[in-house]
Every structure is written in C-alpha cells, then in structure tokens.
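User: I'm preparing a small set of examples for a lab meeting where we compare how different chains pack in three dimensions. I only have the primary sequence for this one, and I'd like the structure in token form so I can line it up with the others. Please keep the answer compact; I'll paste it straight into my notes.
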Amino acid sequence: MKVKLITVVVCTKNGKKKIADCLKSLKNQTYSKEMYQVIVVDDASSDGLSELIEEYKFTLITNSHNLGLAQSRNIGIANSQGDIIAFTDDDCIPELNWLKKINDTFNNNADVCGISGWVKTHEIKTVVQKYIDATKPLKPLEIELSISTSPFFRLWLYLKRQFEIVSYSRWQISQEISSVVGANMAFRRTVFSNGLLFNPILKFGGEEEELCYRIRAKKVGLLYYFPEMKVDHKFERELYFLFKRSYSYAKGNFRLKQIHSERSVTFFPYPLLFLIAFSAILVDIRAFLLLMFLPLILYFQWMLAFMKRRDISILFFPYIQLFTETFYNLGYVKSIVNVHDKN
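Assistant: Understood. Below is the structure token output for the 343-residue chain.
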C-alpha cells in the first residue's frame, strides 16, 4: 500500500499550556517518521512555546498578532509539503496509529477528498464532562443536514431528536457526512490546490463547515467519516467554558450565514419557550414548580437515557442543555445587534 507524505497542522493560541500531550503523541506515531511533518502555528501566544517545539524538532510558525483559527490553518497549509494535510487541536491527543489510519483510508477510497474521525472525551469525572461525552459536540455533521437549507427541516430534525433514546451506534460505522470536525480531519492536497482554503472571516466556529459546504458545492469529492481514526479531546471541566464555546459557535454560525445567505438559521426554540413559561410565575407563583420540571419534559431524550442507564447525573443534563442553547441564542442575537449597529 502506498505510503504518502502527510503534513499535520496544529494551531494554538494557548502556547505550551495545553499542547504538550498532543506533540508527544504526534512524535510517537507508528507511521514512518520520514513520511510526515508536523507544523505548529502559534497564533500569538507568549509563554515559551518555541522551546517545546524545538525539543520535538517540529516546525514552528509564529503569527505576530492573533489571526484566528481559519487563517492560522491556511498558513499551515501554505507551508506544508504533504500529499495529505491533517489537522488536530492543541488540546487533542491522536491515537498512535492516527496517521496510519489516515493514509490507509485515502488509499482505500479514491473518491473521498476529506475525512473525519471519532473524537473521544479524554476525561469523564465531572457532570459537565459526562454531559459533553453524552452529547458528543465534536462529532461530524450528518449528511441529512445537507438535504435541505430550510429552517423548518432543521427544526424537525431537532425536535425529532428530543424524543429518541440517545445513541451513537450510527457513528460506529463509516458513512458519508455533511462536514468534518476540526479536531480530527484530513484532506487530500488537491482540495487546497483547487483554491479552496479556510475562510479567514471565520476566526472561530464554523470554519470547517463552511469549507466543506464549498467542497460539496464544487463537487471536489466525497466527505467521509471513519470511526477508526481517533483522537482524545481534553474538554474543560467547568460550565463556564461550555457556555463560552456555545456563545462563540453562535457568532461563527452567524458569519457563516452572512457568507452563504441561502443557508438556514440555527436558533434553538426551547430557551424561548422556557422564557415564556417563566413569565407565568408573575401571574401565579404555583407555576414555579412546573417551571422547575419543564426542561425534563422538553429534553425528554435525557429522561429516556436516565430510565435506561439509571445514572442520577443524567437528570442534570436537560438543565445544562437549556443553558447551553440559551448562550448560543444570545451569541447569535448579539451578532445581529452588532451588524445592525455598524450599519
């Protein structure tokens, strides 16, 4: 089987704070050492990252100021030599056979131009980490999402999911996808040779989804998910970071809508329903009891999961999801207001 030169691009703005485990894993890959290079793009951090990179003998490119994730990835691509260009994040730990799996996958699938794999939760100790592991926020976007741009279609998929038992059995098999996930993705070099790069307007959130949207529109090749291609992700333990990420993703998706106006708007309905229900307390304080249990009804998938697994921490998941979606909606509304103020 042909062994291709692979370039791995890792972008960071955290310096050496998170990246050490990622670099160690990349150094110890089972893939032939002469057949891959690692490029670390430092997006203007300031804590001595150069010394760590020199220790691993990888290539370091330092941005003079913060350019964002999309543009940093483009800089990595511009300095790459590989036939395949793979990407992971500074807080991820690729499995030691990660590069071998990437190479084998492209060799066995000539019509595939971009691939993504499974992102595992590295540590599951807190309720927040259990929630993250249960929701799998860094899984690829299903191919169903490319069927229609209608917001009503996405709303139907969302509501349908609330009454299904939480299961990720479908992600145990290879399948075509709508978009890859940035923490674990790779492309053939021909994708970027065709002039397709990450859109620098998208500094964080939606950058890989926007690229995949153009890849599918230009029919460059298929996008596929392969579960054997695995990385561990070190998610934060605190709710603050979960809400902050949701808020940031909303701003990225708003910019995605600005770039491609035909795309549907992603806006979660349940926080609005909860706010309406909250106003009932002003009329009758007895409505407070109903309000407390409302998330358990709205996000009924978690009640089904609790009845199946009998894990008490699952009962907190509806409330975490409610606030996560609320912060997403706030981020989207804030983006609309900012654009209106500029105009």
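A couple of notes for your slides: Residues 317-342 form the longest helix (26 residues). The two ends are 57 Å apart (CA to CA).

User: Perfect, thanks.
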